[in-house]
Amino acid sequence: TENLMSIASTQITCNSSLCWCHLPYLIKMNIKCIHSSKLKECRFWKTSFGMSVFNLGNAIMGSGILGLAYAMSNTGILLFLFLLTAVAALSCYSIHLLLKASGVVGIRAYEQLGFRAFGTPGKMAAGISITLQNIGAMSSYLFIIKSEFPLVIQAFLKADTNSGEWYLNGNYLVVLVTISVILPLALMKQLGYLGYTSGFSLSCMVFFLTAVIYKKFQIPCPFEEFSANSTSHSVIPVHSNASVLVDHAHHYDNRHVVDDAHCTPRMFTVNSQTAYTIPILAFAFVCHPEVLPIYTELRNPSQRKMQHVSNISIFIMYSMYFLAALFGYLTFFENVEAELLHTYSRIDPYDTLILCVRLAVLTAVTLTVPIVLFPVRRAIQQIIFPNKTFNWIRHIAIAVILLTCINMLVIFAPNILGIFGIIGATSAPCLIFIFPAIFYIRIVPKDEESLRSTPKVMAACFAGLGVLFMIMSLSFIIIDWTTGGGSAVGGH
């Protein structure tokens, strides 16, 4: 190690697994690794602090922000703020455990941490959880594009009915978006290259937040609502473990005023839906599969610097989540729907600003898919090709196969997305709470921290909290399935 630190050369010969995972000093020195037998380069491109914040923020930010106003209506402002603050703090602590375990052994791959902690079973558990969680997320994002994009185009064209044009066909549009936007971004060699698109994606969500705040001061309470001559309903997943009821209305004429005697915000509310908001908020900051890949590419990396990246990203998302929920709730109060933008459509389905916001949200969702795909590809490579050097053909093939399979699911088997609800309710608590805690307990040496030390006792309690969230989420999903309800459980 001392020899490496004193070397001024920019090129050494090394094993690929060391290049990728085991030598933080190589990454810190911006060294180019060349495999001794095949002379394949595995160059580390450094990502700036700001770009890393954008990438992690984009990984956190999901379409679940659209359902937070509904969550606030079922908890009240103060209870929602308390729960959101607690979850944000727990997410920062979870990332701290992950980074601390990573720093002890010099490994920056989630799967390899699992291997160091529990051998092959740990590696497989981490890899499978990341793969299933993120495939479920990508499937939900593409399903949103398939379902919402045609409606936005139709509203912009002010077409009362879908007359069958190809540009109003969701199946064609999701394939077109995948090929023209998602696939080229997913083929980037390094995650850091997506910093600019992540910044633009977050800008779209800032535009969404600005519109929500503006509409609060424009829409009166009670508000006037268009009446619908014909409506159709469909269930659109918000994440791999969430679904919301969306009202697609096409013909509007006679206005009527919504009878709303409750135009006063509630600070604290407990009802039959309050318990559902706990798992929704618990999964609001899912970004843990992306933390270590971003850490690997961070310029002049250190545990403290990556923790700052995580804290800033989580704080930015925390602020946006709370403001979007607050002003969305203060606009519609108890009339807010599970998908906020569809509540605005009840007032004016052809509102140009809201249509632009819906388009911006679709853009943000689209640009999130490549970020989510990177950890899946890395997990597959760690499981199937653990000792292989970087190869463009394999890199491209995995991305193409993944996106093809996900598009096939979205187009031909959309009902299978319900299965991803169960998967997400299982994998998300593992990735956020359970794995970081138990990896930390196993990896940090006992002579440094005993099992009865405060940090490890806290980590054990944290893992227990993850088990509790998993049981709650699975219970609510099963209750919804058995009762035919449509409550949202989940919320990235």
Automatic annotation (TrEMBL):
<feature type="transmembrane region" description="Helical">
    <location>
        <begin position="312"/>
        <end position="332"/>
    </location>
</feature>
<dbReference type="GO" id="GO:0015182">
    <property type="term" value="F:L-asparagine transmembrane transporter activity"/>
</dbReference>
<feature type="transmembrane region" description="Helical">
    <location>
        <begin position="457"/>
        <end position="479"/>
    </location>
</feature>
<feature type="transmembrane region" description="Helical">
    <location>
        <begin position="395"/>
        <end position="413"/>
    </location>
</feature>
<feature type="transmembrane region" description="Helical">
    <location>
        <begin position="352"/>
        <end position="374"/>
    </location>
</feature>
<feature type="transmembrane region" description="Helical">
    <location>
        <begin position="77"/>
        <end position="99"/>
    </location>
</feature>
<protein>
    <recommendedName>
        <fullName>Amino acid transporter transmembrane domain-containing protein</fullName>
    </recommendedName>
</protein>
<feature type="domain" description="Amino acid transporter transmembrane">
    <location>
        <begin position="46"/>
        <end position="479"/>
    </location>
</feature>
<feature type="transmembrane region" description="Helical">
    <location>
        <begin position="419"/>
        <end position="445"/>
    </location>
</feature>
<dbReference type="GO" id="GO:0015186">
    <property type="term" value="F:L-glutamine transmembrane transporter activity"/>
</dbReference>
<dbReference type="GO" id="GO:0005886">
    <property type="term" value="C:plasma membrane"/>
</dbReference>
<keyword id="KW-1133">Transmembrane helix</keyword>
<keyword id="KW-0472">Membrane</keyword>
<feature type="transmembrane region" description="Helical">
    <location>
        <begin position="193"/>
        <end position="214"/>
    </location>
</feature>
<feature type="transmembrane region" description="Helical">
    <location>
        <begin position="166"/>
        <end position="187"/>
    </location>
</feature>
<dbReference type="InterPro" id="IPR013057">
    <property type="entry name" value="AA_transpt_TM"/>
</dbReference>
<dbReference type="Pfam" id="PF01490">
    <property type="entry name" value="Aa_trans"/>
</dbReference>
<keyword id="KW-0812">Transmembrane</keyword>
<dbReference type="GO" id="GO:0015817">
    <property type="term" value="P:histidine transport"/>
</dbReference>
<dbReference type="GO" id="GO:0005290">
    <property type="term" value="F:L-histidine transmembrane transporter activity"/>
</dbReference>
<feature type="transmembrane region" description="Helical">
    <location>
        <begin position="48"/>
        <end position="71"/>
    </location>
</feature>
